[in-house]
Amino acid sequence: PINLNSINESSPHIVKTIIETIMKNIIYTNNNILRFHSGSFYKSNESMFIPGDNGILLPGFTTSVQLRRNNKLFYLINTNNKYISGISAYDQLQRIRSTYNGELFYQKCKDEFIGKSFLAKYGAYRVYKVDDITFDKNCINTEITMYDKDGKQLTTSIKHYYKLQYDIDIKDKQQPLFIKYYNNNNNNSCCCCYLIPELLFMCGNNNKGNNNEYKKRVTTPKE
Predict the structure, then answer these.
(1) pLDDT digits (tens, 9 = 90+) for 93-104
(2) Beta carbons of 61 and 79 less than 8 angstroms apart
């Protein structure tokens, strides 16, 4: 047990970290309203489309535990509005295709996407960092293993998987696949997750927007 009354400036940092973790989990129990990614909470029903910038503003906040005067603990809530580009990875892919072809197209895509973060437009709206791109695989010719509602293991195409799991119909069936690698701790092997460009937002503000009013809101200072 942690005696909150005994915490002072000399208390281990881990104590405040544990308290903060507990508080975050209490907040996240309302996950039908709040989303949590990249260290911040966002209200999923308050996202705003920004005309002209083709982007989305997510009004959000971060939290932290801090020790203030008289050894009192404060749970701080700081505004942290985030701008996410409304341009999908697929849109950017098509822009590159309209300018380059052949090996130069492949290289430009790798320069543009590998190592960048993207927000998925489905499920828990997770953020993924792309590790690789495969141009010879697509949602039709690539199969994955999944489990149906009854727990039965199935091998199905990626296209069918997205339809079963998220009720999403992938429009361009020939688009390349993004890859996110994971280490499998059970046998020290590496596995991967295939991502669909048309279902990914490009994260972050590319500073090409023209709406200064919304840009100011993006950089709201801490309260």
Answers:
(1) 999 999 999 999
(2) yes
